[in-house]
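Predict the assembly for these two chains.
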Amino acid sequence: MGVDRKFIGQTSEDRFVDVEAGQLRLFAKATGETNPVYTDEAAAKAAGYAALPAPPTFAFSLGLLAPAQKGSISEMGVNIGNVLHGEQRFDYHAPIHAGDRIRLKTETVDIYEKKGGALEFIVQDTTAHNQNDVLCVSARTVIVVRH
Amino acid sequence: MSNLNVGDRLAPVVTQPISRYTLAMFCGGSGDHNPMHVDIDFAKSFGMPDVFAHGMLSMAYLAQVLTKSFPQQAIRSYGVRFAAITPVKATVTCNGEVTEIFEEAGETRARLALTATIDGGVVTLQGDAVVALT
């Protein structure tokens, strides 16, 4: 029933995702974002961005748009209907823009249980580098599995 | 925003009630295609009474407290703990408060405490962020 602890320390394959302006605009619309910096290239450039910027939490979406095969929660045997998002953290090192090609790598750093195994927690760290090999974002995700 | 002091509150963000349409839009906009957030039949099959909002939707709303007060380039870190589920039709109120001003990596930085609450005062997200002021 529980998640096999052998996944601790496993790292995903490299995944690549192109940051598309249309996806950023849809994300802005879906989140009620009204700041034109996030939808209008001219406004973004006037604010000092090279192109439309990915908003602060979009880095998580990059992972969803280019999901890992190796070390994914489905490979761990976890059903998507039983998961909750427990925690999410981002450390920002360099901006991500429309037109970037981002390389993602995810490591499962811990798996532990609470409530006598009724809840399990999967901790995964993801790095996002751009096409110039610059680290843009490092992120930590804690997934809660309900049993 | 270089004249911030500990205890200062940032301008809040208050959303419209989260509709099923909002959740469908965020499903496509965010790339989170988990049916738990858009398919009531799926949600019921896993023992939930209804679909509920993506945690990352509220995290995006809470981030707007930061981006309304600071240029995004100034945000150094941002994290949250998801404390409670956000049901459909909830209105999300996002707040931020300065808890510390400190020097790090040659910058003056502010640490912020962030919260998202829904109707009835239930805290759904508890977070923190660091932004550069100079």
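Chain B is about 25% helix and 35% strand. Strands of chain B lie at 13-14, 75-82, 93-104, 107-118, 122-132.
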